């Protein structure tokens, strides 16, 4: 029920989630008011609306287990922890969550201030995209944690009464009972939890009982903890007291009440395993007058159902678990805090608590293995129930170690539950009253000898537990009624001693749920056995005449299978890979509820071959790869009296090569009358599934056949011709009234899905998914003559169909004929080549609402080459439209439809060749009455947010619309005939350009992306730039006719003019971050009427190949202009690229954060040389194609730049002059210089010293360069800051160097640079005709004989077409390249450096000494290769290098 308080709180939470600066939201309210329910609803909404990338929810509770919470969160993020400490795991989780952009974390039931970082949850400055919603009973917790506080209030009086009345099953009348009930409801104080619990407790009671309850409320003493339980205690106490029938003498309270209290022993918010609960209940003596375990089980299950009905327990998704609300658990703890039944429960234990001996039940969960004072012995003379559980840890061997003496003084103990506990050498002491021992993942030493100390034991469960052996000592447990063994010991197969089980004659339940060696013949001795769980191999089935006993419950699995539950919750039989006789299972077939047969041979049918009685208790049947089976049932020899498969709910069939049908002969009585789910796949002989024409006379008077069917899935049935074969005379006895989901795939012979008579009954169909059915022509079709009779209704109504998905059905012409579908939310149709129209409406039916898509939100059509029309009806809820490859579609919507598209937000169209515009004109507008069309908007598409259109060759414009107040994104690509995006001509209906609003207004437009639209002249004429205040990104490419992006129209002479209304206005683009324009040959202006200061957040500016581009910004104010140069005042600019824009000469940049600068082929700017540079603002840098590329006005720091690329700057002689005095290049990583013909050098020695991060250096076609780094004698005194000759250059990160086509380059680097290019990996030097030396000795250095220098990282060296190269390394030096992978030397005729390879495959090089200087050259140099071409690779077999030892 949605109360006003919960609606208000929900809206406040969603508002806070979307608000900037709010990272933690606190939802507080009284216990039982519905905080958890609301938090779950927020999480569900966030997932469905995709508001976050991840939504995580966990419960903190009073004693949070951090490791468990970390595990739950990590699972959501796919994280496997490497570290074991809480702190280490928190750090791993922290980093993992930081990698996800948007996260919602819901923290339920927080009791005190808590640091989320201790779990590993980043938020605030550490992760702005992470929002935390916490729930708490205490407002001060929200305050302390600086939350946005939101209170969840109680229900109003009227809301509380309506909820109470519904839950109590009362009529809405003025009876005396209702008067009393209203007084009782008022006592629940508007708390939903209290209302539900009390209403359910009193449901169906007499007026006197209601009066008694009301009086008890009035007489209550109000003794409770206000903070913990608040106003729910009295209502809960009333409900608890109503579990009143029968007091158990052993426990002193009612059995159902004790069952409820036992549930409170389990951890908060954990699902409780009902099997454990049942065995514990039996152990404490519930229902003592019932002797059989099976009967006790039924009683306890009945009690749990009553507790769930009363609202004191909650359902879970699984049938074998239950849950208790945290507030109700707190109430149970309050009940057991005093009196005869005192309980203690600790959800987490790190220190041993103070306890007295009065407790009757203690549950200690997650006990840390490092508890310092774990007692050797404790005295609990009244203790009957003990749960002792070690901490959950990754290491299996990490147990809670307990001495056996710990239990010595617990003589009254009846139930002992142990998890992750290890016993000392002595084993368990004498526990004379112990009835139930349940051990999970424990290590029990000397367990066999301990059994003699537990003579009263009735229930023994050992699961994943290490014991010394399964011993003969078990026989001494004469009272043992229940034995559960699963993965006991350390071996894969459990070793059960021969003849042990047969001597356990008191056994009523035996559960052996892992591989074992049990001899099944021993079961004959167990006359009291009622329940059996067994995992067997085929070899364990005796070949002699053996039959398993009759059982009330069983779970028997023959063969290895992993996905099947072996528990005996329902009667389950699984047989895999079995070809022998099935007679051993005869006693199980008669009452089996779930039957799975995989690869079972020799059976032609289930009935009568396997069971002659008709398997009428069977609810689930799975058949796979049973190659001999032809039908489920054969009735040819039956006289019509058989009842078969009458309770079957689920049918799954796969890979049955011989299956021909479900029934051979006349269908038996009640055949499949309860069938709900059908899945059939890969049955190649199946032609008809439901043969409704073959029915016994009795069937005509029963529940309609298939009336309970809810889900049908058919896959890969190549010969299937009909799903249902129905005679006209049998129409009344077949119905699909419950069918909700139909999925059909790869049924290539199917021509229709539903016959007309069945289609009429499908009032609840919700999802229809059809794919790869090549011959399918219609969804509803006429399969047989005579199906249509006179006065047949031709209108098929599927009022609940939400999802329609059809793809790859090449013969389909119509989706449906005359079908009323009002709830459709999503349509997806793909690759249906014959589809003409989605709805084919008969001409003689006049129903104005027919096909009205009132709820359709998503429409996706792909590859429908014959589709010409969609529909001509209103649609008020369409949210998203995607159309691809529908070549004959000329428009999307008629005008009448378009008028109602008030909620359309996203539109995507691709490859629609004939599409001219989105909205087509109705042929007979005068005949269409649209006066009653609701939500009719004066604008087309008023809520449109995103438009994406690509490859629509005939599209001229989208539609006529000037105001799109919610439009956020326009992306248009490859539309060669597009002239305008929005046509501004006023159309005949008054839509389009309005007299009082002549300007386009797109106040939320963030992204404008247009590519390959050669006829587009304007994005939109008459654009009001103030209506573009949200623009963040503009990308325009290959629009050859585009003249101006905004604010242009043509006068009567076809000339471009600026609108007079805007001529004097200058605007700001306060959110624009990226502007990129490429290949627009006629573009002259981008932003007229905008000053450069109007771009305060601009980060990236790219202008490429725009030969006519004159201005990006306005030049209306002199203070922004120097000559013809634009002052770019953009403080956050990071990327600036201007390429092939010859009308633009240079920029004067005020941008301290610039990281990437590319300047290529721009106009020269000699005029700047005559400009008085000092007039520039402090901190400016002038960038342009002039003699000095960069001119700096003092104080400018250039330290942010990472990439610098200069190309085709024909006027540039110097990149930077005196630059190092005012700027630094400490972060430069990439420098590219190309075709700067007049450039003389690159670095001065001082500048070179600041290049510590340079990684890539590329120089090409710089013809005048003689040196890369000026020699010290070339540095003018004015530009030198002290003596730099002895200061090392800093290229320590230089990795790749390429120098080509620099014809005047004499040497590459001074030899002194060698030690600081140690990371060099690639050196390519090509076509530098005057290059003589790669490494040049600047001064005469004394040659040290055989001196070696290693280039540790150089992998690639290319020296090609270098006619002047004499030496690679200086004379007398010896270079070694340990990692060399590729060496190429070509056309270097003067080279005196030779190359060779040693025994370690290291490449070496040496330069010949001049003869008069050489005393004696080594053999090594004489054998090396000189002035010959080398093409060597370490891996490829190319030319060889000489090997030198």
Uncertain segments are 783-793, 841-852, 923-935, 986-998, 1048-1052, 1054-1065, 1115-1124, 1167-1175, 1277-1286, 1412-1416
CATH architecture assignment of the domain at 4-151 = 3-Layer(aba) Sandwich
* End-to-end distance: 90 Å
Q: Using DSSP, what is the number of strands?
A: 76
Strand content: 15-25%
CATH class label of the domain at 4-151: Alpha Beta
CATH topology of the domain at 4-151: Rossmann fold
Largest sheet: 39 strands, mixed
CATH superfamily of the domain at 4-151: P-loop containing nucleotide triphosphate hydrolases
Number of alpha- plus pi-helical segments: 21
Shape estimate: globular
Mean pLDDT: 81
Quaternary status: single chain
Rounded to an integer in angstroms, the radius of gyration calculated over CA atoms is 42 Å
**Can you give the helix content as a percent range?**
10-25%
Structural class: alpha/beta
Pfam family, one: LRR_14
Organism: Gossypium barbadense
Family: Belongs to the disease resistance NB-LRR family.
GO molecular function: ADP binding; ATP binding
């Amino acid at each position: 029920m949605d109360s006003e308080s919960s609606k208000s709180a929900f809206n406040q939470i969603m508002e806070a989630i979307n608000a900037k600066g709010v990272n933690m939201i606190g939802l507080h309210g009284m216990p039982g008011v519905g905080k958890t329910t609301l938090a779950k609803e927020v999480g569900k909404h966030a997932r469905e609306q995709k508001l976050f990338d991840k939504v995580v929810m966990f419960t903190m509770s009073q004693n949070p287990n951090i490791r468990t919470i970390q595990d739950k969160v990590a699972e959501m993020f796919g994280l496997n922890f490497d570290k074991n400490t809480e702190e280490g795991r928190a750090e791993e989780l922290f980093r993992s969550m930081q990698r996800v952009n948007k996260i919602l974390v819901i923290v339920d039931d927080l009791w005190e201030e808590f640091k989320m970082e201790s779990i590993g949850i980043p938020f605030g400055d550490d992760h702005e995209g992470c929002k935390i919603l916490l729930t708490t009973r205490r407002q001060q917790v929200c305050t302390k944690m600086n939350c946005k506080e939101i209170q969840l209030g109680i229900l109003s009086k009227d809301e509380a009464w309506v909820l109470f009345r519904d839950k109590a099953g009362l009529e809405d009348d003025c009876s005396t009972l209702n008067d009393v009930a209203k007084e009782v409801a008022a006592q629940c104080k508007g708390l939903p939890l209290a209302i539900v619990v009390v209403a359910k407790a009193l449901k169906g009671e007499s007026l006197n009982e209601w009066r008694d309850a009301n009086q008890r409320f009035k007489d209550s003493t109000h003794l409770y903890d206000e903070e913990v339980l608040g106003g729910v205690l009295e209502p809960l106490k009333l409900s608890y007291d109503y579990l009143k029938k029968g007091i158990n003498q052993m426990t002193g309270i009612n059995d159902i009440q004790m069952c409820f209290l036992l549930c409170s022993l389990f951890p908060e918010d954990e699902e409780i395993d009902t099997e454990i609960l049942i065995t514990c209940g039996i152990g404490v003596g519930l229902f003592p007058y019932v002797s059989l375990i099976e009967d006790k089980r039924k009683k306890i299950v009945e009690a749990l159902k009553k507790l769930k009905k009363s609202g004191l327990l909650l359902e879970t998704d699984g049938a074998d678990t239950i849950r208790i609300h945290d507030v109700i658990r707190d109430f149970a703890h309050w009940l057991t805090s005093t009196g005869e039944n005192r309980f203690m429960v600790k959800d987490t234990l790190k220190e041993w608590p103070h306890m007295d001996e009065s407790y009757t039940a203690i549950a200690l969960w997650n006990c840390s293995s490092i508890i310092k004072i774990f007692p050797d012995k404790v005295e609990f003379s009244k203790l009957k129930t003990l749960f002792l559980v070690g901490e959950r840890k990754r290491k299996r061997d990490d147990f809670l170690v307990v001495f056996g003496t710990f239990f010595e003084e617990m003589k009254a103990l009846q139930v002992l539950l142990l998890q992750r506990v290890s016993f000392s050498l002595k084993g368990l002491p004498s526990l004379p009253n112990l009835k139930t021992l349940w051990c999970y993942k424990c290590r029990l030493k000397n367990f066999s000898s301990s059994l003699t100390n537990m003579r009263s034991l009735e229930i023994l469960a050992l699961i994943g537990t290490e014991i010394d052996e399964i011993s003969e000592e078990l026989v001494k447990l004469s009272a043992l009624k229940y034995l559960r063994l699963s993965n006991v010991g350390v071996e894969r197969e459990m070793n059960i001693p021969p003849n042990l089980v047969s001597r356990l004659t008191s056994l009523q339940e035996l559960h052996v749920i892992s591989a074992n060696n049990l001899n099944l013949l021993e079961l004959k001795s167990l006359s009291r056995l009622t329940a059996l769980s067994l995992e067997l191999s085929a070899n364990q089935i005796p070949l002699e005449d053996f039959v398993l006993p009759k059982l009330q419950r069983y779970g028997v699995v023959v063969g290895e299978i992993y996905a099947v539950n072996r528990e005996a919750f329902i009667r389950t039989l699984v047989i895999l890979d079995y070809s022998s006789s099935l007679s051993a299972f005869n006693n199980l077939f008669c009452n089996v509820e779930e039957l799975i047969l995989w690869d079972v041979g020799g059976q032609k049918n289930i009935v009568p071959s396997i069971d002659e009685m008709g398997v009428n208790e069977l609810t689930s049947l799975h058949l796979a790869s049973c190659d001999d089976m032809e039908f489920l049932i054969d009735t040819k020899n039956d006289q019509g009296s058989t009842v078969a498969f009458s309770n079957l709910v689920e049918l799954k069939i796969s890979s049955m090569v011989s299956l021909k049908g479900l029934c051979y002969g006349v269908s038996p009585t009640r055949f499949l009358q309860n069938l709900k789910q059908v899945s059939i796949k890969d049955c190649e002989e199946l032609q008809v599934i439901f043969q409704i024409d073959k029915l016994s006379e009795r069937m005509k008077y029963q529940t309609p056949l298939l009336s309970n069917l809810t889900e049908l899935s058919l896959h890969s049935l190549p010969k299937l011709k009909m799903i249902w074969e129905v005679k006209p005379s049998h129409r009344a006895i077949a119905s699909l009234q419950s069918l909700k989901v139909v999925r059909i795939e790869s049924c290539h012979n199917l021509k229709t899905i539903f016959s007309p008579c069945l289609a009429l009954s499908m009032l609840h169909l919700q999802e229809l998914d059809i794919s790869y059915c090549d011959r399918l022509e219609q969804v509803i079709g006429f399969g047989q003559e005579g199906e249509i009779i006179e006065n047949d209704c031709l209108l098929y109504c599927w009022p609940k169909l939400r999802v329609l998905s059809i793809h790859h059905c090449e013969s389909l012409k119509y989706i449906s004929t005359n079908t009323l579908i009002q709830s459709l939310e999503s349509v997806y149709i793909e690759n249906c080549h014959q589809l003409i129209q989605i709805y084919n409406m008969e001409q003689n039916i006049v129903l104005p609402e027919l096909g009205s898509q009132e709820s359709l939100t998503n429409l996706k059509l792909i590859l429908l080459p014959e589709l010409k029309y969609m529909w001509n009806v209103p649609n008020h809820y369409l949210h998203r439209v995607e159309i691809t490859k529908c070549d004959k579609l000329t428009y999307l919507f008629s005008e009448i439809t378009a008028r109602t598209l008030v909620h359309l937000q996203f539109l995507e169209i691709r490859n629609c060749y004939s599409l001219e515009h989105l909205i087509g004109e109705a042929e007979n507008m005068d005949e269409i009455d649209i006066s009653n069309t609701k939500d009719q908007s004066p604008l087309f598409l008023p809520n449109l947010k995103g438009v994406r259109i690509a490859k629509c060759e005939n599209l001229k414009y989208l539609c006529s619309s000037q105001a799109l107040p919610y439009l956020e994104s326009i992306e248009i690509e490859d539309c060669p005939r597009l002239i305008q995006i929005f046509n501004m001509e006023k159309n005949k209906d008054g839509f389009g350009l309005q007299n009082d609003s002549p300007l386009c207004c797109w106040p939320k437009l963030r992204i404008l992306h247009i590519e390959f639209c050669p006829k587009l002249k304007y994005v939109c004429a008459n654009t009001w730039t103030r209506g573009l205040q949200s623009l963040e990104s503009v990308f325009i490419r290959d629009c050859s006719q585009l003249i101006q992006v905004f604010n242009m129209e043509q006068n009567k002479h076809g000339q471009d003019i600026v609108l007079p209304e805007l001529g004097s206005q200058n605007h700001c683009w306060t959110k624009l971050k990226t502007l990129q324009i490429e290949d627009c040959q006629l573009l002259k202006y981008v932003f007229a009427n905008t000053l450069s200061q109007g771009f305060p957040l601009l980060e990236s500016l790219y202008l490429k190949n725009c030969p006519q581009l004159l201005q990006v910004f306005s030049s209306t104010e002199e203070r922004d202009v120097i000559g013809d140069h634009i002052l770019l005042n953009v403080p956050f600019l990071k990327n600036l690229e201007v390429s092939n824009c010859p009308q633009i000469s240079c920029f004067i940049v005020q941008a301290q954060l610039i990281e990437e600068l590319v300047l290529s082929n721009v106009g020269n700017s000699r005029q700047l040389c005559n400009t008085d540079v000092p007039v520039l603002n402090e901190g400016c840098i002038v960038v342009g194609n002039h003699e000095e590329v960069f001119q700096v006005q003092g104080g400018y720091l250039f330290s942010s730049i990472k990439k610098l690329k200069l190309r085709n700057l024909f006027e540039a002689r110097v990149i930077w002059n005196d630059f190092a005095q005012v700027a630094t290049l400490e972060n430069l990583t990439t420098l590219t210089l190309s075709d700067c013909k007049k450039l003389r050098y690159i670095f001065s020695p001082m500048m070179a010293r600041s290049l510590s991060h340079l990684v890539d250096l590329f120089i090409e076609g710089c013809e005048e360069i003689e040196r890369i780094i000026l020699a010290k004698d070339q540095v003018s005194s004015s530009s030198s800051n002290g003596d730099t000759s002895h200061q090392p250059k800093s290229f320590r990160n230089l990795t790749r160097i390429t120098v080509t086509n620099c014809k005047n380059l004499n040497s590459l680097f001074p030899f002194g640079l060698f030690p600081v290019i140690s990371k060099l990996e690639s050196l390519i030097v090509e076509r530098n005709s005057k290059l003589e030396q790669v490494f040049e000795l600047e001064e005469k250095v004394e040659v040290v004989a055989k001196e070696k220098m290693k280039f540790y990282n150089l992998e690639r060296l290319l020296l090609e077409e270098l006619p002047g190269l004499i030496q690679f390394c200086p004379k007398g030096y010896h270079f070694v390249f340990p990692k060399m992978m590729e060496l190429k030397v070509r056309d270097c005729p003067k080279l005196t450096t030779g190359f060779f390879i040693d025994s370690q495959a290291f490449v070496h090089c040496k330069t010949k000494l001049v003869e008069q200087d050489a005393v004696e050259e080594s053999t090594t140099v004489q054998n090396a290769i000189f002035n010959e071409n080398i093409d060597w690779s370490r891996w490829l077999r190319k030319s060889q290098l000489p090997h030198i030892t």
